[in-house]
Amino acid sequence: MEAVLSASGYKTKTIDLISNKPSILRTLKKLNPEIIGFSVIFEENLERFRDLVSFLRKGGINCHFTAGGHYASLRHEKLFEFIPQLDSIVRFEGEYTMLELVNHIYQGSDWRKTDGISYRETDQIKTNKLRPFEEDLDKLPFPVRTSFREYAFNKKFTTLIAGRGCIHNCSFCNSRKFYSKKSGSIKRIRKPEMVVEEMFTLFKKNNCRIFLFQDDDFPVKTRNGSDWIIRFCKELNNKDLSDEILWKISCRTDEIEEAAFTMMKNNGLFMVFIGIEEGTDDGLKMMNKGVTVTQNFNGINILKKLGIGFDFGFMIFHPSTTHRSFIENLSFLKEICGDGYSPINVDKMIPSYETRVEKELIKEGRLKVKGYISDYDFLDDSMNKLYEYLSECFTEWQKYPYGVVNLAQWARNYYMVFLRLSGTNPDVIILYRKFKTIIAAANLFFLDSAKELSYYFESGKHLTDDNDFLEKYRKKIDRKHELFRRKIQDNLDMLMVYGYVYQSS
Known about the structure:
2 domains, 18 helices, alpha/beta, pyruvate-formate lyase- activating enzyme, 15 strands, 6-stranded mixed β-sheet
């Protein structure tokens, strides 16, 4: 978006939503903008956007307010209802729509004629015809990047995409819905040579060495088989980037093949995010994942064999969760994470807007909406109690910046970067093995605790006990969390010493 506007001669500035409201107001008063756009993707940020918009209007910012993003596109009428101070909403991919809107506002012409927007007119919401998708993503200029942050050992990183859209249709995801609303291909992929050219430019001009792809499903496999990724890796080699950079992707386990991923690792792949989500075939079928437990095991084992790191999504709690399926999922997680190769991070499925899960919960009368946040109860109340207790006890462990999971992921990332860029160091290899032993112990403690607590709540003991058992268990989890957190931090501190020596050499 910014790049298209900049290429047309407009000055732009990105402001992070997490900045405090008075600071944002001061910045905007200095800039005196013609238009402000709000990126509304997830419903959980709606109240924050509403409060910010109201604060800015009361603070004297009277320019055109527009919004875009997934939620804004799929629920534009509800967004106008929730944030009535908005003048317009840019629906779906907005580069050219935003440019036309800005042109109208700058020229003083009727912006309401812009294709691809919705707007309020008196007490009605008007929706203009949608603009078709841009089929050739390489026509768009490279994104504007004003700064680069450190990833590990002073190595700069940035995000980028190789394509847009997803051909899959998981029950909990609205990505397919977003890309099905307009004419054009559901999935479009850039030329691999152009993606490498963008990486090469960032490497040469900004010394950026770590690239995190944001594609829902990186084009490891396309209609032409492995042709795209072969060309991509070949071009990295042609540009002499293969030994200089690292990159991370998201993909499916049924796309992971040893030959292709060996080639990818040789050209810089160091990390993969895989949306596993479930550890049973029944659960995977319910989610419409289109993969099996066996395929998940096979993909993970290939990554481990090749020494490629992985993170994963796993929704151990979902509308159909029972104590039996919960225990089965714990067994699956033990198989893939009992060795400490990756820290365990689990979630509850969110019934996102415009998904099959949301529609099913509405049909069953189980969808609970508070404000604009949707939730549900489990079919067994003892499962509700288990979820509440585990959330209370393990939120810091799983979600906090200095909790076990986040700290372990960052330490693992540092190891992956060090071993990729500095070669094999015997002392660091030993240290890395100790690190995995710590993570294995932490993972097993989490799994064993979750299993024991599942049996406890399923038995109904929580209804008759005086909660002394649960209070003692909570304290044990707190002690273990601090123990594992400290061990991970100590191990990472030792790695940083080797990293300092490496950077100085």
